[in-house]
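Lab notes, practical 5.
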Amino acid sequence: MERLNTGIADLDGMIGGGFPHSRTMMLTGTTGSGKTILGLHFLHQSCVDGKKCAMIATEENPEDLMEQAASLGMPLSKYHKQESLIIDRVYDERTEYMKDILDFGVSEIDELQSNIVGLLDRIPKKAEVVLIDNIGVFTLNMSPNEFRAQFDTLIHGMAKRNVTAVVVMDSASDERMGGIAAYSVYGVMKTQMKENPYTGSRERVLDILKIRNTKIPNDPLRFEITSNGIVILKQQ
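Output from the prediction step:
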């Protein structure tokens, strides 16, 4: 199976060379645990490798995401200017829409707030790599059954177009949906902040829960976020 580099060489070496081509990986985790940065690594590496890339930004301003990436040694704005990276500003649309419905006293939430399937139409036709961050924002008014149906359709649609995708989903949303997203995707990685029982200090860990047809580490990987992005630490 063809693999795409994650942008973190040590991680690639532990998962058979990278993320599987034309499959969807899910990154989940708590706030500040590094899940978005992990996704940005993959997006930047794909741009470097000459892939046609797209980012659907649902939770943050795209400029803030690009600034964050640049501070970690990943100049995404360069590829955005070259149009090899297309950014869909769903976040801006969501916030403007919410302002409008509040101004008009409307209580119903329309498809922009819960239409996961509609993201397929927002992915550029020539895109080879897609980062969606964060799919969890669409789940606030959805049942687990509705989420599963829409999420499966999104993943199936991307696979038919041979898109290699990384979908970020915050832990709170994942838990609210009963953890069913993990059954739909090809692989799941979870970032967490944990207390080291030996040092008493908090540290970030990456738990590779599954990647189909791939030998993966049994134990969580300790990592740090440096000026060059994520660095996998020597395992204890």
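Observations recorded by the TA: The chain has nine helices and eleven strands. The first strand starts at residue 3 and ends at 4.
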